[in-house]
Here is the input.
Amino acid sequence: MKNKPHVIIFSGYGLNTEDETKTAFESVGATADIVHINELIAKPSLLLKAQILVMPGGFSYGDDTGSGKAYGNRLKQHLGAEIEKFLARDTLMIGICNGFQILTNAGFVPGALLTNDSGRYLCRWVDLEVVGKSPWLKGIKTLSVPIAHGEGKYFAPPETLAQLKKDGAIALKYVQGETAKHFNMPANPNGSLENIAGITSHDGRVLGLMPHPERAVRFTQLPHWTYLKERYVREKKEVPTEGSGLQIFKNAVNYFI
Amino acid sequence: MSEKILDREKSLDLNIKKLKGPEGSAALGEFLEGLVERYPERAYAPGVVDEINANRITYVAEHSGAYAGMWDGIRVGDCFSGRLLVVDPKYQHTNVVESLRTAMFNDFREARIMVYPFGQKRDSTPEHFEARQRALVRYYEKIGFKLDPDVSSGGDPVVPMIWRRSEMPPEQQL
Here is the structure.
């Protein structure tokens, strides 16, 4: 494919990060539409126009029956077969935060996201190490991105975890990087099994992750960017303009060019 | 807590039970399924993974042998991390929430919830959303919660709220 890809970003029932996700994709050259899940259920042929599907973050159904549970059920029951057809093409799909919870509940990636060990909603920045192979993560070694969730503790039964390791499908792990060190915070914010922050389907084309790369597309979004800027200036280094999350969106677009 | 804290039209003779793990899950599924049959626009998700059930507590209000309401959550130490408070609409304006709350407050030192207006219509405006959220916050304040000063929503449209037994007036400390 020579043209830049078209992205469909799901919306509805409390998903709420569609706009910044759309902006992130458009900033790297993709075209993107925000489409309510009911429109896609009514007209699944809309999926034929897309090369990338996104389950964005938010609070679908208010998280009331478990984060992503109800939306995941709706997705699976009404669009499961259509999305399987979509994935049978050489396409990409990503679930971010609530979108990751939706993808696990719908069965597109294994495991579950449970209540944080602290029992609290958490909003902070985390550092990630890329440990798996995925078109989404090509060339990326580390990332610093924010999280905002109450149920982000990744869990999988031992046999599922073993299969994930065998497939190389553990994509991202929480590590004590620049941001966690600067703010003296633990690497793993929520008690995730083996520090897992993101996983992929066995072929790497479906990525689910709890952190929000769409909220880390500009350097000035970093919580300590002024400190870092000063450091770069003193070290006579170029001050970056991009946040590390942007490369995920670039990778997705470049996959189709 | 016996004081009248909510406007209600009638007081029912409720049977309050505390279910643990999969029993709570089964009751919640049965309750919601029944609700959804009568109120089909209310989506729900049946079942939860065993790992969730390991720490799950579901307070169940029964009336005349039928479910009237439930408060579902996760035990994290001495804290109840609330997920779903649901009342069958035909039992609204009764003492269901008050009774569930009393049972839960009896068991925990602390309870946390995230307030988010559920079931927004597609043509809802931000003003609708904010008005509903303010109303929900006022409601939870009435039943004993306050804004949680220790948890930031980070700009997300949720309101973290907390109840602490130690902050209740001495005569109300259960």
